Amino acid sequence: MKFVLDPALGKLTKWLRILGHDAIYWRGDQKGLMKLAERENRVIITKTRKILQESQGRLTVFFVTENNPFLQLKEVIEGLKLKVKPEDLFSRCLICNEKLISIPPEAVRGRVPDYVYRTQGSFSECPKCRRVFWGGTHYERMMEDLRRAIGEDNGGEF
Ligand SMILES: [Zn+2]
Fold first, then answer.
1. CA-CA distance, 103 to 87, in Å (whole number)?
2. What are phi and psi of 62, to 5 degrees?
3. What is d(CA 117, CA 131) in angstroms, rounded to the nearest whole number?
4. What's the 125 CA to ligand 1 centre distance in angstroms?
5. Ligand 1 centre distance from Cα of residue 37 (Å)
6. C-alpha to C-alpha distance for 118 and 99, rounded to whole angstroms
């Protein structure tokens, strides 16, 4: 399932990417958003009632009622019955939405802090912006947020 989210849902877009989903954050007008959803067969996630009304029957629209991004995430996971798969977590660039590619530690030497190079075993890179990603404290903190947001009863082994 691929998504496109309206301009009110930037944080939720990031969280869907953390879960590994293809999620486009749309910052243009409503017409463009609906066109993109139709062309690329994307589910629209929106807080705008007008989009829900205008696309009725033609496009798949999920209407978000919550204001807090974590509650929105929970709402979307439950509403669309998304599975949270551990192997998909952090597999996508949070900025570009591109799938990350695994790269050997030698390839990141000089591109990440020395300490990170020495202590982390696996790295990945975004093919578009060339940012390097790795585990560590940042990752752990996000995992904790995620567990808190979606709870134990999400149906996955995560
Ligand atoms: Zn990127």
1. 17
2. -110, 120
3. 14
4. 8
5. 22
6. 25
